[in-house]
């Protein structure tokens, strides 16, 4: 079967582009050491229950209006499931996963992170309005994914 010379040219350009993108991906991953966002800290995902601070997840007061929330995502929930902080507080979330990739999202805020097993994901947010906020997993994590949620109560 004979191809037209322009077909051959476009085929070579397409294959060349794919090879170039693949080489760029390999270079950025290994040579430059790219990691997942905020994934600089790592832990053994099989020993989350024995690794501080994830061995005692909860809400910890750091200063007058600053809290650290240590969360563990697992199929199909968050530990702790209910968090309570006062209005105006800056909350520093520290999250990891015990099993599979999960999401960590609080709708109506800018809190949205991917939680990978073996990686510690950190994000912060200042809650200026009182109310009850939903914590959702926004990455499909299995058959019970639609049930995976928690609550954050911002009190007066």
UniProtKB/TrEMBL annotation:
Keywords: Copper, Membrane, Metal-binding, Transmembrane, Transmembrane helix. The keyword Transmembrane applies. The chain crosses the membrane at residues 9-27. It catalyses: 4 Fe(II)-[cytochrome c] + O2 + 8 H(+)(in) = 4 Fe(III)-[cytochrome c] + 2 H2O + 4 H(+)(out). One of its GO terms (molecular function) is cytochrome-c oxidase activity. GO terms for cellular component: cell envelope; membrane. Coiled coil: none annotated. InterPro entries: Ba3_CcO_II_C (IPR034214), CcO_II-like_C (IPR002429), Copper_CuA (IPR001505), Cupredoxin (IPR008972), NosZ/Cyto_c_oxidase_sub2 (IPR051403). It is found in: Cell envelope. Residues 64-156 form the Cytochrome oxidase subunit II copper A binding domain. Its main location: other. It comes from the Bacteria. Subunits I and II form the functional core of the enzyme complex. Electrons originating in cytochrome c are transferred via heme a and Cu(A) to the binuclear center formed by heme a3 and Cu(B). This is Cytochrome aa3 subunit 2. It comes from Calditerricola satsumensis. The gene is cbaB.
